[in-house]
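Exercise 7. Given the encoded structure of a 417-residue chain, write a plausible sequence.
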């Protein structure tokens, strides 16, 4: 196995060098230029050579992008041991987790992957097709693909404002609207705790760099896992609310740029907050359930009046108060409302289905997301027991983009069966 990973890394690095020398960006041209030589010099299973081209071109593409962003970047080189195999190269028994990886013609490595109930849920579902397999030391990553489920007919919309302490949303349908909040305050506390702990560790072990790095990496993983777990809970609740209410989720398109006049600590706090991660989770979970997601420009959302459209140019406090029409609402839900209105303005079909009357929300109480979910949305109508997958498809043209999910089989590469 070790030999195979090394050979593959060598193939990738050789391909990178050849592609850089001839300024090649297409797989076809790289194959024409390099295949014969690599195939002669390396006695591996031949399918790995085109796979290594793909990895090499991916590395070069990422490098071009970072150069475009003005970052400096040395000569590209893959350091991590890895192997990538397309789905026709390897065999995986989906029931037992028995994995067969070719080394050379008629020579295989057989591994037994430990499958948890979570893995089995995907492997037992025939709709998920096997994609590529990536192996790094102690980890096998199998990509599973599936056609996106039919998008459900939208009858409601959720405008969501992402904040440091909370996710603040407005759910609006033909029957009315309500305000909800999901608490994320724990995340900041977790991050603060781990930040202090890392500082302390770095100081204490300053004389041993290797040990410091290892301990810091471990702290980082722990922090990430704890934060992600909180985010998973909120994103799951949000998406199941949207699926049940047949709502489209409207998010703000994020672009966080550090501003020079912000205090250093605030800048750090905001830059380590997992803005992208929460949106990534919402997006992929929504895709799995056929819930559409829209993104709108977040400009001015917290400073605009959703009733009369007037903007405030000064600082807005806890509550947004309109200077023209006296509209008043807490800043975050006001932003959620504006995000929702922006989406309705850009989509006619949605605007016909969803009625937003800010005035009706004026004195509404904000409900915790988990309570909204339990009540099934609005109090007056009964929750539908139908799974989103079984809902009648709309007459919109079917989207055949494929959604992907990575199934990580950690620590599964211990020993052959
Ligand atoms: Zn106003």
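Solution.
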């Amino acid at each position: 196995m070790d030999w195979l990973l090394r050979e593959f890394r060598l193939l990738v690095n050789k391909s990178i060098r050849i592609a850089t020398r001839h300024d090649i960006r297409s797989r076809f041209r790289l194959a024409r230029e390099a295949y014969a030589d690599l195939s002669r010099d390396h006695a591996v299973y031949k399918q790995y050579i085109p796979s290594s081209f793909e990895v090499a071109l991916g590395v070069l593409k990422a490098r071009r992008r970072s150069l475009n962003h003005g970052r400096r970047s040395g000569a590209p080189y893959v350091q991590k041991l890895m192997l990538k195999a397309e789905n026709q190269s390897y065999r995986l028994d989906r029931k037992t987790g028995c994995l067969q990886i070719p080394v050379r013609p008629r020579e295989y490595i057989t591994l037994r992957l430990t499958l948890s109930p979570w893995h089995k849920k995907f492997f037992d579902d025939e709709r998920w097709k096997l994609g590529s397999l990536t192996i790094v030391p102690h980890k096998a990553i199998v990509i599973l693909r599936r056609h996106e489920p039919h998008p459900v007919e939208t009858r409601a919309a959720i405008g969501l404002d992402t904040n440091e302490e909370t996710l603040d949303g407005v759910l609006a349908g033909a029957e009315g609207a309500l305000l909800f909040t999901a608490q994320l305050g724990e995340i900041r506390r977790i991050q603060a705790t781990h930040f202090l702990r890392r500082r302390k560790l770095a100081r204490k072990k300053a004389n041993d760099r290797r040990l410091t790095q290892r301990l810091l990496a471990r702290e980082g993983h722990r922090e990430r896992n704890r934060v992600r777990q909180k985010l998973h809970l909120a994103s799951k609740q949000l998406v199941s609310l949207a699926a049940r209410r047949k709502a489209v989720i409207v998010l703000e398109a994020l672009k966080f740029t550090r501003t020079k006049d912000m205090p250093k600590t605030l800048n750090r706090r905001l830059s380590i907050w997992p803005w992208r991660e929460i949106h990534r989770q919402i997006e992929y979970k929504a895709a799995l359930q056929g819930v559409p997601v829209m993104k709108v420009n977040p400009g001015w959302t917290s400073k605009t009046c959703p009733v009369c459209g007037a903007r405030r140019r000064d600082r807005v406090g806890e509550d947004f108060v309109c200077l023209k029409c006296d509209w008043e609402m807490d800043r975050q839900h006001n932003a959620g409302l504006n995000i929702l209105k922006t989406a309705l303005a850009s989509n006619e079909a949605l605007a016909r289905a969803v009625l937003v009357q800010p005035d009706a929300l004026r004195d509404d109480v904000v409900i915790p997301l988990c309570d909204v979910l339990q009540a099934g949305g609005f109090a007056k109508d009964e929750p539908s027991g139908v799974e989103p997958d079984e809902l009648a498809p709309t007459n919109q043209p079917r989207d055949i983009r494929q959604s992907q999910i990575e199934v990580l089989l950690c620590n599964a590469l211990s020993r052959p069966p």
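Remark. Residues 305, 307-308, 310, 322, 324-325, 327 surround zinc ion (CB under 6 Å). Students should compare their own answers with the one above.
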